[in-house]
Fold:
Amino acid sequence: MRLVTFETPSAPARIGAVSDNDSILDLNTACALYLRDVEGESAYYRLADALVPPNMRALFEGGDTSLEAAHKAFDYARHLDTEASGPRREIIVHPFGQVKLKAPIIPKKFFHTAGNFREHHEEATKAGFSHPVLPWIVFFQNVDAIIGHEEPVIYPEHLTQELDYELELAVVLKKSGKHFSPEEARDYVGGYVIFNDITARDIQRREMKSGVFSFCKGIDTFCPLGPWIVTADEIADAHNLGMELRVNGKSRQRSHSSKMSVKIPEILSHYSPMGYSAGDVVSTGTVSGVAAFSGDPKALYLKPGDVMECEIEQIGVLRNRVISWQEAYGHKPTALATQETVP
Structure:
């Protein structure tokens, strides 16, 4: 399934699954209908809210039980007429053009991996940018910076003049756990999603003097995630996926998930002593081709009006436009103290 969080003009965010006819099926309502019509349950709404709640993180907190119930509801609803409705006459089938996709999930924790693709580390070293990464590092992403498909990245020109992109594959955990082995890690993988790790390189250089960076990647809207979560059963091998990032239609990053130096089971196991909650997200690192490490960074850094398309095979395309601060807020930004002036 391709799991989405969506909004309609008349309803707050709910979860759905993308159907073959380019529509979105409301999974919570579909589950209630399935329980009533197929299972013969009388308390079908209460059971549907428990099995397939209308919130993505709550769905993953239900683990395999909830994911299996969502699959049943989806398989049932995808064969219904497009005019079919739920037990209370709710709309089940929503045409894409009538909904707005949001970030598919807002995790409790977002584990960020850096330096895992050696090609990216090597280009950073050649550019004189990076400190040693052996073989990768971890930090937490700001979950409040998460945005979804087609939502804008706001350029904070009062903070940075070197806005960059980083295409990444990310993993969504389907259950909580800690202290588990790489061999056990497969049992925790609920699905995969595309992540664009927007980075202010000038801020990053200042932060890296201390060997730590976070602010440069955690500014508001710097975490595009989407367009949906593809459940793990749909992807036979997450280390066999083509990856490409385009800016205004031109390829900037192109690589393959097989080039990870540390594979997903090892990454998940290594971070597990910190403890996972169901619905947590773990990124796996970016590939080569970022603007900062090119021959002409200034020509390639993002600017307002640029459109980024992040594509990963078997998942889809995550698209976001860069807009100016003034376009977003209707006024110029207020000057703030820089890191260099803060005692």
User: Anything to note?
Assistant: The chain has a mean pLDDT of 93. Residues 63-77 form the longest helix (15 residues). The chain has two domains: 2-101, 105-328.
